[in-house]
Each structure stands twice: as structure tokens, then as C-alpha cells.
Amino acid sequence: MHDLRVGHYAAGSGMAPHAHVESSFTIVLQGSYYERIVGRDIEHRPGSMLFYPAGETHSQQFGRDGAHKLIFSPSLSCLAYLTDEKVRLPQAPYVGSMLIRELANRVAKEMRDGDSFSSMVIEGSVLELMATFGRIYETGNRKRAIPSWLKEVREMLESQPEDGATHETLALQIHKHPVHLAKAFRKAYGETIGECQRRLRLNKAELLLRKRNMALADIALQSGFSSQSHFSRSFKCAFGTTPSRYRAERS
Known about the structure:
Blueprint: E1 2-9, E2 14-18, E3 24-37, E4 40-44, E5 48-52, E6 58-73, H1 76-84, E7 94-96, H2 98-113, H3 118-142, H4 148-159, H5 167-174, H6 178-189, H7 193-208, H8 216-223, H9 228-239, H10 243-249
């Protein structure tokens, strides 16, 4: 976790469409604002916690009281853990609760009035914030029933992420129309089939990067990317760093 800060936004102000180089979490401490991101228009109030994928364009319009937000960039290991737990980070998920509001206010207070123990309190509270985010997200997912044929499609994608399966080939295997499959998949999982394939390929590539003697071009090929440059662009967009730097940081 780094770049922890509290942002203050004036009443009635706005932010034009923009994107960030690094992924980040934001928690609303006070005030409210409307936001447009991944095709959604949402109002966020105190206790709302949002994830912003690197490179995802969004715009914001703040309410009559402005807003105070706690903002931080999570570590790559935390992002990997949430991804492993099926949190669909590329879809800019958001949750909200009183516990999140209390934890975020605790962090802000420690930042403002801290002592020699504050760094430990802040670190623990931020980790708890991310765990609470994942837990609420997971609980919400369990409430949505997903038909068995959609689960079958997802299992096919997960078993062979490097495979170039199309809507047509997948639909043929489950005896559904490709358009129906595309709409149902996005509704159930919050991402398109293409987005799911890209995420799974990146996850596979991240694991292959741990093999020090494996060339980046070979990793790209085995993960299903058309070229090393395509792989590098997609990886940096998702993880906020290049494959070579990611590998170097873990050597």
C-alpha cells in the first residue's frame, strides 16, 4: 500500500473524464458525488469504497457539500489476492457499509493526529478495509443465482485461458445463441467474455513470469496474446507496471 492521502473536493466542482496510471481504492469520508465509470452512473456517499483499475476512464461531479475521500494504491500482492478470490477488479467494483466508513475514518484520524504507533494502526486498518471490501463483494455475488450453463462457459474459459474461443464456438457447445450468451455472461459476471479471457490470460502470464528463465515472448504466446507488445500493454494496464519490471521486483 502506498500514496495514502485524503483528497478534498469543493462543493459543486467536477472532474472531466480522466484515468490514472496506477490502480487505486477510494473511500468516501464525507459528502457525496456522482460518477460515470465502465458505463455506470452512480452516486457515492460516506462509506462507499470503490476500486479504480489502472487506465480506466471516469468522471466525477461533486455534491453541494463537496467531498472528502481517503485514497490509496494497493500493493500488487493485495490485488493478486483479491483477483484470486474472484473479485472482478477490471469492472471497477464498489461496495458500501458502516464498517468501511468507521475504518476509513480511523485511518484519516491516525494520519491527522498520529503518534509513533500510527503507522501500524494505519497498515492494519487498510488491510482490513480491503478484506471487508472483498467479503462484502463476495456476499453480494452469492446472492445472485447463476445458471449451470453459464458456469460451464466460465469453467471452459478458466481451464484454457490461452484458447481463442469465440462467442460462436462457446455458444455452440452449450446450445445457446451467441447474443444471448454474451448478454447473460456480462449480467452474471459483470464483465464481457473478452474481458474475462484477457484477465485470465494476464493471471496465467503473472504466474509464468515467476519462471526466471522463460522469455517474455514465450510467456505472451503461452498465455494467448498475439504478440509480446500486446502482452506488455495489457499487463501494464492491469497491474500498473511492465512485465519486465514486475519480474525484476520479485527477483
